[in-house]
Amino acid sequence: MIPLLLLLAVTGLMQAARTFSTDVGTGGTELAFGFLLLAAYFTARIVSQFKLPKLTGYLLAGVLAGPFVLDLVTREMAGSLRIVNGVATCILGLTAGAELNLKRVRPVARTLRWVTVFSVVASMIVLAGVLFLIRPLLPLFADLTTTQSLAVCLLIGVAVSPQSPAVVMALLSETKADGPLSQFMLAAVVVSDLVAVLCYAIVAAVAGVVIGGGVDVMDTVLAVAWELLGSILFGVLIGIVIGGFLRTVKQGASMFALLICVVVAQIGTRVHLDPLVVMLAAGIWLENFSKTDASALLHGFESAQLPVFLVWFALAGTRLDLVQLSSAIVPVLILAGTRAGWYFVGTRFACKLTDAPPVVTKYAWMGLVPQAGLSLALIVVIQKQFPTFGAQAAVILLSVLAVNQLLSPPILRAMLLRSGEGGKKASVDFAAGDH
User: Fold this and answer.
1) Percent residues over pLDDT 70 in the chain
2) Are 134 and 149 in contact (CB under 8 A)?
3) Domain limits of the chain?
């Protein structure tokens, strides 16, 4: 009852503050950050009483406060907080990489390879095929030839396939899960996102030739090579720098790592590097190849992550347009259902083919279902590269993402708890806090 009253009080104060000025300056940015932080925190407290993950509360706070419902946080306010997205992405990458112990993943490495093939890559083709069959339901395809429709379907199929290391990390932390399933899920979503980036570059180049979207094949190949390989190399250098700091200075390592995340978030995209890949590589280097204790860094890092991740997930919620989702609900549910269904079939098949541990075989598929950061990034890229149909494609992609963001976290949380791995990791919950 108290969290609800506090939430209503914060909402009332935000509404009162908005009546004085709608300008987005430094004050508006700070106001939006503070409101989303408190609203997400109290909403999480409320939904947790109904056995829902706190992550659902963060997203719900953003949906209700965003421009499509109460409009307490406008599009301009959300845009002014883009630095939060960048820093959160970098923190996520460093944390996920440092949590990924290659020695623990090695026993299921063969399973991971076949899951990538049968679930991730195959899902892109399956989703493209289903989209081609239901194209009469979508005005996007009205003026396209059959060949062009195939190219667009494949492009959307790739763009709708990425996973969400952010959601998986948040729920692993909230449930304090650790074990073969948790490690496999984390490795699978990281590898899958890298594969999705590569596949998108290839498909975008082909679609550019077929549709005339202005995509140069050679430029695209070189850009992806630089973005992936350059990001990995730069990330290894970052990992060496952080490792050296940990060995020599030792004090203030968490603040130093946070500063690195801010710098990478600011300059990474400007030099066409992927901040997520950069910090993933840094984290993997720290955990698996450096002579430093990465766990000590993460333990001190956790308290700094909480406010950033609260606002980050709330910001993700502000992008979800429920009216837009309802207008295309039938094709969206078909695509979302096909996506989840294929991950179930493909992952089960790959696990049985490689004699994976029973807990991985039974539950690992659900880790591939959530969507977040990379999917949003690809939506923006499609709109820029293909202006003729990008806006309509974005409606489909955002609607599928909305369904997965709202429905998948509670199911994934339940499966992690049911697997028996919940509570096996003693740590502070970086994305939920001890509340």
Assistant:
1) 90
2) no
3) 2-80, 82-418
Average pLDDT over residues 35-64: 87
Model confidence pLDDT, tens digit, residues 159-202: 998 888 878 888 888 888 888 898 899 889 888 888 887 888 78
CATH class of the structural domain 82-418: mainly alpha
pTM for the full model?
Answer: 0.78
| Residue 434, pLDDT score | 46
